[in-house]
């Protein structure tokens, strides 16, 4: 029976060991302008290469809600020149479990997640297409054709993570923070901290292929800034399991210099621009 008060077991189970199982779709990578991409990476992380990576997948069996579709754009970075991993720039979600996935990621782990208006992922034999729409624009369109990669050397970066039937570990870097409301009603970001979440995944299907990609922007999602200079390749893949099993608190960072690089991936401009309005029925 539904109740406003849940059991202590329910509290303990809230977002306990979140797992994104039965995950299938298109992974891709392309070369972009190094100066533009480097500008988006908050200190103390350092950009490893002028490459945008990403995926559009169907999350079939998440442990925190119903299935949903997800787009992720990320860069490969390093911390103190010894820990490497992914720094997500923007994730958009759509589908029955999208709200759960957004809350679990954004409030639970500091992941830059928002809701898309529509994400469509289709495969037909040896081709697949993914489109992502938001605020009246097709922000992303990705086409995959099974076969040879645009640039075969790109697979060297993902060989470990995409090794068939062998569990692989990967780090993802996020920034967590608190929002503190003062007596006068003003809000300030505090306790901004860099963390690394460790993910353990098992790929049981990987099909490399050719990538074609197009990006556009809205005022709230400036994807077009990450220009496609050269498509590097794509793959259709399936993760049987993908579990966030550990979080490392790395260091506190300066809120004033860090937060301007975090807000767009998490909130639309209506939160901080009084002239930003939209109407949709």
UniProtKB/TrEMBL annotation:
Pfam families: ADC. It comes from Lactiplantibacillus daowaiensis. SUPFAM superfamilies: Acetoacetate decarboxylase-like. It comes from the Bacteria. This is Acetoacetate decarboxylase family protein.
